[in-house]
Amino acid sequence: MTTRDEAFATYVAARRPQLFRAAWLLTGDPHRAEDVVQAALTRLYVAWPRVQRADSVDAYVRRAIVNAHVDEGRRPWRREASVGDALPETAVAAPGAAVEEHDALWSALRRLPAGQRRVVVLRHWWGLSVEETAADLNVSTGTVKSQTSVALATLREVLADDLTKEST
Description:
mainly alpha, Rna Polymerase Sigma Factor, Chain: A, Arc Repressor Mutant, subunit A, 8 helices, RNA polymerase ECF sigma factor, RNA_pol_sigma70_r2, transcription regulation, transcription
């Protein structure tokens, strides 16, 4: 194995679970998430010598995942497939969160439109700033702020409704 391949394999081995979880949050389907991650990693491998010298490999991979997700959504056969409700086995609950809360959060997240879901994943899962999120999505910072605001309001509403239904 060449040094290039070793460096790429090391990076992928360390980051693949996080990349899969992020893709799953975007797609809502573990099978599509695998497709998205594979497409992103293929792009990364081709550009690895250049990307490896850049400041942030993670930024390139995040952008590749978002772009692969958008590309997957454009394929006509994907419009016919339904999104599964099963959580992937690698999904990790927030520390101290009950399983029911975890399931409710993922369910609520899947109800968001794709653009809002992308912003929430990049801002709150990856912990990016508004500016970094805007750069990764190739949108303005105002779009990131408005999408985040609407998405969080929707999540609060959906989660509150779920809690109300459970208590009655």
